[in-house]
Amino acid sequence: MKHANGPNRMKSDVLPTRASMATGQLALDRIDYDERATMRAWESFLSDEPTSARDPVHVRSLIHDSWYRSANGGINAQGIEAPLSSDRDEIEYLTRANAELLSAARRSFASLGKLLDGTGAMLVLADSDGVLIDAIGDKKTLHDGMDIHLAIGGKWNEGAVGTNGIGTALWTGEPTFVHAAEHFCAGIKSWTCAGAPIRDPLDGKIIGVVDLSGYSPIFRPHNTALVAATARQIEKALAEQQQEQRTRLLEAFISSAPSYRRKDGLVIVDHRGRAIFCNNVPNGDTTEMMDGPMEPGRGRWLMNLPASGSDTDLSNALPPHLRSCHITPLKFDGDLRGAALVFPSVPAVSSMTVMRREGDKHLRAAAAMIVGESEKLLAAVDIASRVAGSNGVTSLLIEGETGVGKELFARLVHAGSRRTENDPFIAMNCGAITKELFGSELFGHVSGAFTGASRDGKPGIFELANGGVLSLDEIGELPLEIQPFLLRVLEERVVHRIGDSRGRPVDVRLVASTNRDLKQEVAVGRFRSDLYYRIGAVSIHVPALRERGDDVLLLIEHFNRQIAKLAGNDPLEFSNEALDALLAYRWPGNVRELKNLVERLYILARGGTIELQDLPGEISAGDRGSMAMHGDHPAAMLEAPVCTFEDAERQAIKNALAAESGNLSKVALRLGISRPTLYRKLGQYGIRRGFL
């Protein structure tokens, strides 16, 4: 039904299509807007089944389609506000995650903000999920916007609050206005808003929305054009930022990769793992990148860059189709900002080089399984890695207490020794074999060699390990009468099955491990000196956990996250007192004992936080003894000078930074707070990470 012109009747404009935006023209078609008719259409829509495909009269199809999505998405049509997150940590995380977008919008927002005061309008910036991250404009409107949560932290996508300028612009991917009664929720029908999506210049993905909002009288047909122009300005600023970053990454690559040859393939990725520069990219595994018009693959996401930026973590982050490349971290301003992927030219790569690269890949993966940063542990890993890469070392002795992880070092040697995917790794615990069966297990036997022998004969573990690595755990348990036969096999590289005169050549690298002092065993006559010097030409001492300092914290975090992932739960948190007790404990069972403890805590803990009383008595009691030994007594504490809570908190953070050498992950774990909270506290107290 037609209505005469009046206060509830106005002319407005529909949105430009993407095609028209591409040509820089705003194709505006005139439409009628009738407040009462739109309200009646909304009420009628809500009374009918939302699956109805009938477009209401006087309602744009864009709005009706959005109403339909809102109703089917379960949005409360009588809602009065959007969801709002007021958690400071979440807001801080949003700010950091959208730092580039905020920086690019700063100039436009600063110039427009001065012009909006007194106009009844506000300009807001939302991220790709419709969450507001900045807002400027008329002070009264900004204040009133809080009533509907049109403020930083408010979530305005369609899935949260139904039809609105921000959420509908995100959905359509085009500049969009939603006026008054066109909103889906009753509580925001007195507002008008026009939003325009912001696209990343590199890959074209929507990364945010700029929106002009206010009470309905501020509506003007050109509001949509204004936000569309602002979005283009922000995209231009983003492009300038990305070009500057691209230049700095190329400069960082030139200074850090002097051995790069022009005929090699090169891909530079930014901090998000997207290709920003490609040159001479080879065919084969990387052909999927070669689909761009100027630079093959530019803008394509290739990998997730790890926060640490270590060579091992970077290599592990590479997807399978890029494992043939060499990766170099690119840093400036003290942070990891990207990486260089170099593909050596194919003619220069020999088959031996390819095999070595495969070995390096397996070696890096095996080394990553050994968690720790202590000097003693890293020295042991270095020796094992060098042994793995040497063809001249055929046997290795690994010494260390029970539970320190000696088998991980044996597997590290195997990983670095592999020449094919099928090279075997055979392990045997000498302490689990009866004295009578040692010969048969080691060397095998032929049919009828002894009572109970297999009818068809049986190969020993030396034959099974041919071409690979044989790990003999607890070699100190090997019977004295068997030791000469083992020495003979190691010297001659030939094995004789029991009952067989025929020798079988074997190519086996032996990794022997023990928790005994073999020198002492030799001195008392329980181990042959010639065998000891044969297997111990190169030896590795794996340090006990109590000798590894803060590796305890790293292992707790590692097992905590590993077990939580398997269980589908959130990781446990540990109080400061619990962590201090765990650090002070002597760990007679070493890493195995620590892992078992974390598994036990997952089962028995009463809540998500582990307190001192949740730990076993031998650990918690040890902590109290340590406190008493250091004079940490209540009476002594009362004599300490009184300070404010802020001073105590500041000092606690400084102490933790000093104890953890500035490692923020460990500092947060020690303090029992999240990393975002730690960042906020550092800023609050003006503490710089590098103050030490």
From TrEMBL:
**Gene Ontology biological process terms in this record:** phosphorelay signal transduction system; regulation of DNA-templated transcription
| Keyword Secreted assigned | no
Its name, as the record gives it, is Sigma-54-dependent Fis family transcriptional regulator
- Keyword tags: Activator, ATP-binding, DNA-binding, Nucleotide-binding, Transcription, Transcription regulation, Two-component regulatory system
Q: Where is the signal peptide?
A: none
Tell me the ranges covered by the Sigma-54 factor interaction domain, including all copies.
370-603
| MF term (GO), any | ATP binding
Originating organism: Mesorhizobium helmanticense
Coiled-coil annotation reads: none
Starting at the broadest rank, the lineage of the source organism is: Bacteria, Pseudomonadati, Pseudomonadota, Alphaproteobacteria, Hyphomicrobiales
